Amino acid sequence: MNKKWEIKKLGEILNLEYGKPLPDNKRNENGKYPVYGANGLKTRSDEFYFDKKSIIVGRKGSAGEINLTEDKFWPLDVSYFVKFDEQKYNLMFLFYLLSLLDLPKLAKGVKPGINRNEVYALNVNMPPLPEQHRIVSILDECFSAIERSRKNAEQNLKNAKELFESYLQEVFGSAGSLTEETREGWIEQRFEKCFKLKSGDNLTSKMMFENGNYPVFGGNGITGYYNEFNLSGSNVIIGRVGALCGNVRHTTKEIWLTDNAFKVVDYKFEFDHLFLTYLLNYKNLRNYARQTAQPVVSNSALKDVLLFFPKSKVEQQRIVGQLDALRAETQKLEAIYQKKISNLDELKKSILDRAFKGEF
Question: pTM for the complete prediction?
Answer without folding.
Answer: 0.70
